[in-house]
């Protein structure tokens, strides 16, 4: 029986962990069925507890850009572990990774490490509020910036999947300081600035959205946001938790040639260990404790194992001049293949892609914002997901999630994936 051991493990997990998972989207709730439990992974493949192999298009939701169990990362973590796992005091490796990150990313002088993307975005907003002495922020419908209260207002992915516009437990007071605009819609942003003069501390945005499926910015949206922020002394925060070190060495700032005031990181920067970070120019970062008034801290922030993994990952990315070309070529190859077979099979679809982020929407028109994304055919996606899974192709269990392409994928893997997509959509 398929997924036998996974099903047994899930029954056991349900007894002790809410919903059997430690992060909701893993539960397969939006696609039905029960989650597969992973035993191990190497390169482009994951193996479940029933020893079934999958070509992985989630890649731990982004971090594994060079494949699972990437040897330099594994070696770095093993070496560090032997010397102690946490000290609560500064270590040299924190400066090493900070220096490297600052050299790779445009327009940042200093970086502070935290433990997750949520923490990075939450701290970036506090810093922006403290720096500007204003309280409101603008976020976009369908963008997800972690599970901190201010962001659980029309957030994407897990929340969209469950049809919850927001979460109980988020107070009205918090919600009223988060203003909502529509992705790729400058008018909705302008209206908020007009109605909230001198009150908006920051705009926070996924420069390429990945939490309503992959949705790229269009019509110079990012440039226009930069201008309106400049005109209003508002800070522009790029949440590059997905895009950072993935779309280019310098992330979306480099790819689109737009600078943000604060940049948030997660996923790739930790090489698969729990790491987040936020970064900015000196005048903003020096507003943080211990030199500035804005408080932010963490017992395990800058943890040596996490820093070792992150440093090995960033070094690998920084020294491989062909990496982003290869990722672009592989993902473009997949895109062309998918378009070809879905067209031949008379499917109604839209494919969005930026670099190594790609999504299929079972929807006929362009997908440029959350409203478009939510019109995609959900039953069709559910069937697609399960058919792929059964045939050993592991994509995100939600139509509101981007796929993440890893450099570990071979062209044979991509051909196999296209072949399977052809078979299941015939
Ligand atoms: C764009 C974006 N920001 C923030 C986060 C939150 O990161 P974490 O799950 O590490 O808290 C995510 C997580 O998927 C994300 O996609």
TrEMBL record:
- Which keywords label this protein? Cytoplasm, Isomerase, Porphyrin biosynthesis, Pyridoxal phosphate
Q: Which reaction does it catalyse?
A: (S)-4-amino-5-oxopentanoate = 5-aminolevulinate
Database matches in Pfam families? Aminotran_3
Q: Mark the residues carrying the PTM N6-(pyridoxal phosphate)lysine.
A: 267
In terms of superkingdom, the source organism counts as Bacteria
Q: What class of enzyme is it?
A: isomerase
Q: Which cofactor does it need?
A: pyridoxal 5'-phosphate
Per the UniProt record, which EC number(s) apply here? 5.4.3.8
Q: What HAMAP family does the record point to?
A: HemL_aminotrans_3
Q: Which family does it belong to?
A: Belongs to the class-III pyridoxal-phosphate-dependent aminotransferase family. HemL subfamily.
UniProt-recorded name of the protein = Glutamate-1-semialdehyde 2,1-aminomutase
Which species does the entry assign this protein to?
Paenimyroides viscosum
Q: Which gene encodes it?
A: hemL
């Amino acid at each position: 029986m398929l997924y036998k051991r996974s099903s047994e493990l899930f029954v056991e997990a349900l007894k002790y962990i809410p919903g059997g998972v430690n992060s909701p989207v893993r539960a397969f709730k939006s696609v039905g069925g029960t989650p597969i439990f992973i035993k191990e992974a190497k390169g482009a493949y994951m193996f479940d507890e029933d020893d079934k192999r999958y070509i992985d298009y989630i890649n731990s939701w982004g971090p594994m850009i060079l494949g699972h169990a990437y040897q330099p990362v594994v070696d770095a973590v093993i070496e560090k572990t032997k010397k102690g796992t946490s000290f609560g005091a500064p270590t040299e490796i924190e400066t090493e990774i900070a220096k490297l990150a600052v050299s790779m990313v445009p327009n940042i002088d200093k970086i502070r490490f935290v433990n997750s993307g949520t923490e990075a975005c939450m701290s970036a907003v506090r810093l922006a509020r403290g720096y500007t002495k204003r309280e409101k922020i603008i976020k976009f419908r369908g963008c997800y910036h972690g599970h901190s209260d201010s962001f659980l207002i029309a957030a994407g992915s897990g929340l969209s999947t469950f049809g919850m516009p927001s979460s109980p437990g988020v107070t009205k007071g918090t919600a009223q300081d988060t203003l909502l605009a529509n992705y790729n819609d400058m008018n909705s942003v302008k209206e908020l600035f007009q109605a909230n003069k001198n009150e908006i501390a920051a705009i926070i945005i996924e420069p390429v959205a990945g939490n309503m499926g992959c949705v790229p910015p269009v019509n110079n949206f990012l440039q226009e946001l930069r201008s309106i922020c400049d005109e209003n002394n508002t800070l522009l925060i790029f949440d590059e938790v997905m895009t950072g070190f993935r779309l280019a060495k310098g992330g979306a700032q480099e790819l689109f040639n737009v600078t943000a005031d604060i940049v948030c990181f997660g996923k790739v920067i930790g090489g698969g260990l729990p790491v987040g970070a936020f970064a900015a120019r000196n005048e903003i970062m020096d507003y943080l404790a211990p030199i500035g008034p804005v408080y932010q801290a963490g017992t395990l922030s800058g943890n040596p194992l996490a820093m070792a993994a992150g440093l090995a990952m960033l070094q690998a990315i920084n020294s491989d001049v062909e990496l982003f070309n290869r990722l672009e070529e592989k993902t473009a190859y997949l895109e062309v293949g998918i378009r070809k077979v879905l067209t031949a099979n008379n499917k109604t679809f839209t494919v969005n892609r930026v670099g190594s982020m790609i999504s299929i929407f079972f929807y006929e028109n362009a997908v440029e914002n959350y409203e478009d994304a939510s019109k995609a055919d959900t039953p069709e996606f559910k069937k697609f997901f399960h058919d792929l899974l059964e045939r050993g192709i592991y994509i995100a269990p939600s139509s509101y999630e981007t796929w993440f392409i890893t450099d570990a994928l071979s062209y044979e893997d991509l051909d196999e994936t296209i072949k399977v997509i052809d078979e299941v959509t015939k």
